């Protein structure tokens, strides 16, 4: 299944409390449950003003639908071409 990186512009994202992050995560998981197993949230990285999310999904449209239903921004959606890591250098 294709992998996507979603950039969500959220001012002061890095200042969100544990409880706020939990609420956002619960909202996301609730939408995913309704959408079915075709779309999966892998993990996210929280920075000062953005959250970068990694998802598996059949297409970009499904990512956009998740964002719409959850009320989350999806400012940029990029399909991952290949994943590299230190083993790639060997």
TrEMBL record:
The lineage of its organism: Bacteria, Pseudomonadati, Bacteroidota, Flavobacteriia, Flavobacteriales. Gene3D superfamilies: ORF SCO4226, nickel-binding ferredoxin-like monomer. It comes from Flavobacterium flavipallidum. It holds the Pfam family SCO4226-like. This is DUF4242 domain-containing protein.
